[in-house]
Every structure is written in structure tokens, then in C-alpha cells.
Design a protein that fits this description.
By secondary structure, this protein is mostly helical. α6 packs parallel to α8.
Length: about 180
Amino acid sequence: MDAPRPAGPRRALLLGLPLAALAAAALLFMQREDRPAAKARPASAESSADESPRRRDEPPPAPPAPPPTASAAARAPEAAPDIDPEARAIDSMRAALTTDPEEVLRLDDAASRDVGDSPRAAERGQLRVRALVRLDRIGEARSLAEDLVERYPDDPAAKSAAAYMGIHPRPRGPSR
């Protein structure tokens, strides 16, 4: 059985009310866009509101000093914290990798003499592997990558060097 349809004025009311509400909302929206936006107060107005009033014969307050620039920091190296020498060597190795792979090998040799088997030795080894590949010394690079995976099996840099050389390390533990 079909539900009875609203007849006459009821039908007009059911359709007209939502349409009237939609028209009113559109009208309000249009009026809101026509109004000019409230102007933001300038920063000077905000700061002067916080200050206490000053007399006419007093000079205006001095503006705050600008923050130090990068050139000022470069002129004062004693203020900069000293970087770990090994970190400095690794940064230099990364910078030289694309332009001078021989320099990477020299920097790694010097770092190995200075810091030896440090916690970042695998990272230095990874950069050395990449430099050896760039110099077409693939055999040395492969041997070094295998050595890195053996010595530092859980180090991400050693795993990266092995993956770079296509080495699949043997799983640790008892063999089957």
C-alpha cells in the first residue's frame, strides 16, 4: 500500500521551507563578503599599548638589536661548539665522494689512524666502499663490504655497503 502524498499547502510547506533556508543562508554569505575585512592593528600599535606612557621630552626607546647573522657566527668560531673530529672527517668524506674519491680514501686513512675502530667506523667504511667503486676498484670494494658486514652485522651503514655491492650476508645462528 502506498503512503498518502501530502496535498496542497502541506506539500508547498515541505518543499518551500528548505528552499527558503538555503536562500537565506546564501544571502547572508553574500552580505558577509561585501563587508570590508577588519584591519589588523600594526605591530607598533600593539607594542605601544603595552608600554607605559612617556613624556614628550623623553627620547623614544631604542629598537631591539637584530639577531646575529651567519657571517657574525663565522667570524666568531670560538662561540661555535666543537664538532667531533670523526664527524668532521665523515662530512668531508661525503662532500668529496662525488668529486674526488681519492680524497675520500685519504680522509678515511687519516681518520682510521686518529680514531681507530670507533662507533662510526662502519659509516666511514661505507663511504670508502663507494669511493672504491667510483675508482673502479670493485674487488677491493667488495672485500671491504664483506668485512664490514662480518665486523658490524647490525650496523645500518655496513648493511648499506653490502647492499650497494650486492652482497647477501649469511644469516647468523646455527645452520640447518
